[in-house]
Write a structure and sequence with these properties.
Elements lengths: L29 E2 L5 E2 L1 H33 L10 E3 L10 E3 L3 H4 L1 E5 L3 E6 L10 E3 L4 E3 L6 E2 L5 E3 L8 E6 L5 E9 L13 E2 L1
Antiparallel strand pairs: 1-2, 3-12, 4-5, 5-6, 6-11, 6-13, 7-8, 8-9, 9-10, 11-12
């Protein structure tokens, strides 16, 4: 019988157990193009960078378009109306101060037994806006206490002169027309000007 091969010089080949070759490969690894391994984490980072990049791009475009719009359509300051109508003489009661136009046009319409006039709502002291106090029958400035009678004459506080009046007349349709481009000051004797009041 022949001799058995000497096994000392021929070590046995050990076959790896199934799956042993993949011990060092992450469980969530996937094989991409070629031989590169790409993980979902890397893909998420890439997508995040793409989203950020596009966001910056569109933000820059939006900013550019905003600047162009401001250039094409500059801010325009609209001046308040200086000439306007405030209704008919019969809309106003005798010995009453009508405050409906105070906020919109900056005037009070006052009617007495003889005529109607339009008073400015600007205090002659420092330009604040007085209030009409019906119970006290006077205009009272909340800033420094100046007081004016229903006629507009100053009688208390630091106001140096009466309230101003504006040109008033009847329009062709019978309504009262106010023209704020023309002012009348009592201390200059201008309240006697026929355009400073409307006879009724």
């Amino acid at each position: 019988m022949g001799k058995k091969p000497d096994q000392k010089n021929h070590p046995k080949e050990v076959n790896p157990s199934p799956g042993e070759d993949n011990k060092n490969i992450p469980e969530n690894a996937s094989i991409g193009p070629g031989t590169l391994l790409e993980t979902p984490v890397k893909r998420r980072k890439f997508l995040a960078l793409v989203i950020v990049g596009w966001s910056v791009f569109f933000g820059a475009i939006a900013g550019f378009l905003t600047l162009m719009a401001r250039f094409m359509f500059p801010n325009v300051l609209f001046e308040p109306e200086m000439t306007f109508k405030v209704g008919y003489p019969d809309d106003y009661k005798i010995r009453q101060v009508d405050t409906r136009w105070k906020a919109k046009y900056g005037i009070w319409i006052v009617r007495n037994e003889e005529y109607i006039y339009a008073l400015s709502t600007v205090c002659t002291h420092l330009g604040c806006t007085p209030n009409w106090l019906e119970n006290e029958r006077k205009f009272k400035c909340p800033c420094h206490g100046s007081g004016y009678k229903i006629s507009g004459i100053n009688f208390e506080g630091p106001a140096p002169r009466p309230l101003e009046r504006f040109r008033i007349a009847l329009a062709e349709d019978g309504q009262i027309r106010i023209d704020k481009t023309k002012k009348f000051q009592q201390e200059k004797g201008q309240w006697t000007d026929p355009e400073s009041y409307l006879a009724v």
